[in-house]
Amino acid sequence: MSIEAKNETLNMIKESKIIFPNKDKVKNTNAGSIDAFNNLLKRSWDEPEKFWEDVANELSWFHPWSKTIEGEFPNFKFFTGGITNPAFNMLDRNIEKGYANKLALIWEGENYETKFYTYKMLLCEVNKFCNVLKGFGLKKGDRVSIYLPNLAETVIAVLACYRMGVLFNTVFSGFSANALRERLNHFEPQVFITADGIYRRGKVIALKEQADIAIEKVSSIKASIVVKRGGNPISMKSGRDYWWDDLMRKSEAEFQPELIEANEPGLVFYTSGTTGKPKGVVHSGNAFVINNYIYAKYHLDLHQDDVFWCMADIGWLTMHIWGIVGALSNGITTIFYEGAIDYPEQDRVYQILEKYRVNKWWTSPTATRMLMKFGEEKLKPYDLSSLDVVAFVGEPLNPEAWKWVYEKIGKGKIYLNNTYGQTETAGCPLAGAAWLTPMKPGSCGIQFLGAQLDIVDDFGNPVEPMTVGNLVFKKPIPMLIRDLWKDHERYLDTYFYKVPGTYFTYDAAVRDNDGHIWVLSRTDDVINVSGHRISTMEIESAVMEVEGVVESAVIGSPDEVKGMMPVVFVTVRDENNEEEIINKIKLKIVEKIGKIALPKDVFCVPTTPKTPSGKIMRRFLRELVIKGKIVSDTTSLENPDSIEIISKIISGI
Ligand code: PRX
Fold first, then answer.
1. Choosing a second label site near 129 at 20 to 30 A (CA), which of 48, 108, 167, 460?
2. Do 543 and 643 fall into the same domain?
């Protein structure tokens, strides 16, 4: 990146203004005062053992631990020898606290069906499902894969696995048979859970058909449990396929939680690396709960009567972090919504927020941009005054989207928390504490409780504030990745050898002069133009400033002279204005970054390829531009139709 261009980015960050949250809210937060929270933060960094000890003591244990923190990267442990159970801390503990009849889970189907579970009811269902799994011979250390959307049964199955110490994952229900089979063959589950069919935009998708093709060649699977949801005709294979309801009807509602040591594996979550096969990220179940309990408590400022809606899909770790573990370990009410957020109408999100008086909400930057595109009119009829805290994670949040949520949805009265995390970090070590730390539109907040991160150059030397570098962890947190399933060498190589002594995130970040950290992009997505490093995010941010642009994705395309050149994809509000907008985009990029970042092409497209959680899959745009076709696995693509449309636009057809 040229000095001029770098200065431009840093100026943008430097000029970003701190927004102080409403002081009147502070006294009712969990910390009670800003000083108290700052002291807690300081203590969490200065005396991590004491801090994590206090956190863990807020939860229940069957047997105390002997050492709070043991070892260093990559061989670290927390709460060594301590015995507890993740599901016990999410269910039984709340019942013991008197929440037996409090709503734990609200489920809303895309077709407006609803189900409500109190903590007692949820525990009862979870115990029954534990006995079902036990009936198939499953015990601690065995494995289950769940191929379901956001159903109540999905939550029950996940909690049952936690209770039994059975290793599990949820595989995104939009994955094809091939993608599913690849993951199952790697994980080797004994039991598999799916549904007959699932609702998506009013249609029933034959999920079991996909599942059957996948599991046919997965020899580890002894039983496939089928939730009745779509009501579509299916074939059941005798001796392998069982209806969920039949098994549950006969099952006992008592099951003792398994005794699980704090470092034993619990979840094995598949995430796609930028290259190669999907990797199975191994997390300790107990550490996942302990760490996300305290993070959710302060990220969202959780209180007893909160109603939280996490809009993510259970196929992604985000829903586990916030919607299951963060919510239930804090004893609040969590909402699971099954379907598309714009079905049957573009105001479905607002309907749900109003109907359940949601006060804590997680949404994605992309979903926000979608809501922006639908327009303010859709929002106007709804009373969303219950909203208090809105959180984000997963991708850069452009200031325009930040401001829209803050001003239009929240009427300037809410706390916005853009958090940063990865599947590997399990939760969000960069974030704000709701109502306690100042906000900055677009920043990822501060290094959070117990998290010790740094921004370093390629040799591991810390960089000064306002300098772009690699985001690394200097010290572990309990829920940080413990291994890659069946690939310990890849675990060590990928995360711990880039900058020895640290965990390497592969994210480029800047710490500003107020101590806020800005995650700019993956370091593996940097474009090198004439030897100058330019963050694609930086160009995207500039593009997003052009009025009428709804979303943008920038990729690098090889150039004979310059090595690389950016190519810009945008969706725009008014398609009749395309030519004018393209010119404005070019001018804006030159204005914001310099001629060096001038794109080779700007394509206006009706939509961009996305993951089901709404992230733009720039990889496919890159392949279409560079190779003229898609060469990598498209199974994680939510809207495969977009490929042909974009391909035609690129070729000018
Ligand atoms: O590049 C960072 C980006 O998303 C990546 C992690 O994605 P995933 O493993 O799917 O995890 C999602 C959350 C559990 C990171 O390496 N990312 C995440 N949050 C932000 C972000 N980029 C910018 N701003 C964020 N707030």
1. 108
2. yes
Within a domain: 597: yes
Domain end point (choices 454, 478, 509): 509
Q: Answer yes or no: is the C-beta of 522 below 6 A from any ligand 1 atom.
A: yes
434: number of CA atoms within 13 Å, CB side?
A: 28
Q: Are residues 465 and 555 in the same domain?
A: no
Could you please report the per-residue DSSP string of 490-554?
Answer: HHHHHHHTTTTTSEEEEEEEEE-TTS-EEEEEEGGG-EEETTEEE-HHHHHHHHHTSTTEEEEEE
Q: Establish whether the linkage from the previous residue to 396 is cis, with ω within 30° of 0.
A: no
Residue 274, class by beta-carbon neighbours within 10 Å (0-12 exposed, 13-18 middle, 19+ buried)?
A: exposed
Q: 572 with 549: CB under 8 angstroms?
A: yes
Q: Do 335 and 423 sit in the same domain of this protein?
A: yes
114 and 239 part of one domain = yes
pLDDT digits over 162-186, tens only?
Answer: 999 999 999 988 877 877 898 899 9
- Distance, in Å, from the CA atom of 149 to the CA atom of 200, rounded to the nearest integer, reads 10
Q: Which helix (H) or strand (E) holds 418?
A: strand 415-418
Q: For residue 49, what are the domain limits?
A: 31-509
Do 281 and 243 share a structural domain? Answer: yes
Enumerate residues 6+ apart whose C-beta is below 8 A from 638. 174, 609, 610, 611, 612, 614
Reported residue count of the chain is 653
Assigned token pair, 174: 């939009």
Residue 639 scores a pLDDT above 80:
yes
Q: Is 422 in the pocket of ligand 1 (CB under 6 A)?
A: yes
Q: Check which CATH number belongs to the domain holding 544 and give it.
A: 3.30.300.30
pLDDT at 524: 66
Side-chain-side CA neighbours of 92 within 13 Å: the count stands at 21
Tell whether 251 and 330 lie within a shared domain: yes
Q: What percent of the chain has pLDDT above 90?
A: 76
Residue 6 lies in a domain: no
Determine contact, residues 567/527, Cβ cutoff 8 Å. Answer: no
Please, what is the Cα angle at 479 between 477 and 480, to 5 degrees?
Answer: 70
Q: 393 in ligand 1 pocket by Cβ < 6 Å?
A: yes
Rounded to the nearest angstrom, the distance between the alpha carbon of 624 and the centre of ligand 1 is: 24
**Distance from the alpha carbon of residue 572 to the mean position of ligand 1, in angstroms:** 25
- Cβ(421) – ligand 1 distance below 6 Å: yes
Last residue of a domain, one of 509, 540, 561: 509
In a domain, 11, yes or no: no
Q: What pLDDT score does 369 carry?
A: 86
Indicate the number of domains in the chain.
2
C-beta of 292 in contact with ligand 1 (< 6 A): no
Report the pLDDT value the prediction gives residue 276, as an integer from 0 to 100: 43
The chain-wide mean pLDDT, for the chain, equals 92
What residues contact 644, with CB distance under 8 A and at least 6 apart? none
Give the list of residues 6+ apart from residue 203 with CB closer than 8 angstroms, or none: none
Most ligand 1 atoms within 8 A of CB, residue of 325, 422, 524 to mutate: 422
pTM score: 0.84
- The verdict on 356 and 449 lying in the same domain is yes
Q: Is there a domain that residue 312 lies in? A: yes
The fraction of the chain above a pLDDT of 70, given in percent, is 96
Which atom of ligand 1 is nearest the CA belonging to 520?
Answer: 23
Domain with 313 in it: what CATH number?
Answer: 3.40.50.12780
| Tokens at 443, concatenated | 């920043």
Predicted local confidence at residue 648, as pLDDT: 93
